């Protein structure tokens, strides 16, 4: 992993300012992750109230990621041009409207449209800070900040489990989404107060003919090397964490909805601790010259072993195994800052958004496909447990295949002169 851009320290933030900026962005990303993951906790309620099938549930959760994916390419160009502050404030206004629309929806189609709108609105909540960090922080600190942003996202997912269950009797799911709309408005005020304005790079840095486009990014060999695991492995981890772990616990492992919420809490707490640990060790690994792709090559197969155990154990596979799968999959999260560092700083917004598009297109496809497979296997006369096991087995084979493509590219890179 090598940066191809001209690095300059004249944009680095003083430490106290950097901390305040991080906390402002972290609050917003916490809320976006809570909004993203809350459908897993609400799935029993929404399914009962609206008579949703597994494929409907997958589509509803995937609608968020579809909206997310729709904005990624223009988002990257806008981030490079206008900067994180201006872009995220505009996008969060759309997120407020999406939460309000979800709270008022009376049909599945209304819920789906609201989730798409919400996904579009929060789609800048990680890309905006990571674009800023690419210029405002040193490379090793960027890796730590990325992991700790993901940690705050895990905090949001933790908050989407038991705390949401506790609030449901008081607020109901509609009141919950009205409250989320108000909290997003509050986060906009914090961002406006704390995040610095963007200063454009000198024209010499962005003078290349493709400086405002995506062609060079899509063709970059490092980007292509990381794309398969971003799409299947990273996207699949998010799909499981934000949706399918919940239905598995209820319909396969026999959990009650309340116990499933406890399981989701445990999964997300494990993810939180994992990302905190990555944030602690990443700067040390960077200083020792251990690249992200080597860590991914060594560590990601752990998730395949756990996934195989889940399929074999079936009803005996509860939340601890799903937590182990998600934790084993966190190795692939190192690919995101690695892609940003491998391309010029002036293209950070586009590089990150292009890779995020890959990830969330994968989330949408995996969430929908698992639900589709569960329903499709019913046509073969399989019972509920067998249908879920079959769907997860197919997903596991796809994960191994994507890793194989990545590993081939990584070994070819190491074998090349200067690799």
Could you characterize the architecture of this molecule?
The chain is mainly alpha-helical and 419 residues long. It has a single domain, classed as MFS general substrate transporter like domains (Growth Hormone, Chain: A), CATH 1.20.1250.20. Helices cover 80% and strands 0% of the residues. It is built from 16 helices and no strands. Helix 3 packs antiparallel against helix 7, helix 9 packs antiparallel against helix 13 and helix 14 (335-342) packs antiparallel against helix 15 (348-378). The radius of gyration is 21 Å and the shape is globular. It is found in: Cell membrane. It is a multi-pass membrane protein. One of its GO terms (molecular function) is transmembrane transporter activity. Keywords: Cell membrane, Membrane, Transmembrane, Transmembrane helix.
Alpha-carbon distance between the termini? 9 Å
In oligomeric terms, what are we looking at? single chain
Helix and strand run: HHHHHHHHHHHHHHHH
Looking at CATH, the homologous superfamily is MFS general substrate transporter like domains
Find the structural class using helix and strand composition: mainly alpha
Q: What is the beta-strand fraction?
A: under 5%
Gross morphology: globular
**Shape-level CATH architecture:** Up-down Bundle
Highlighted features:
419 residues; mainly alpha; Growth Hormone, Chain: A; 80% helix; globular; membrane; cell membrane; MFS; MFS_Efflux_Transporters; Bicyclomycin resistance protein
What is the secondary structure topology, with strand pairs?
Layout: H1 15-50, H2 54-82, H3 84-104, H4 108-121, H5 127-136, H6 139-159, H7 162-194, H8 215-219, H9 221-251, H10 257-287, H11 292-299, H12 301-313, H13 319-329, H14 335-342, H15 348-378, H16 384-415
Helix pairs in contact: 1-2, 1-6, 1-7, 1-9, 2-3, 2-4, 2-15, 3-4, 3-5, 3-7, 5-15, 6-10, 6-14, 9-10, 9-13, 9-14, 9-15, 9-16, 10-13, 12-13, 12-16, 14-15, 15-16
Keywords: Cell membrane, Membrane, Transmembrane, Transmembrane helix
Subcellular location: Cell membrane
GO molecular function: transmembrane transporter activity
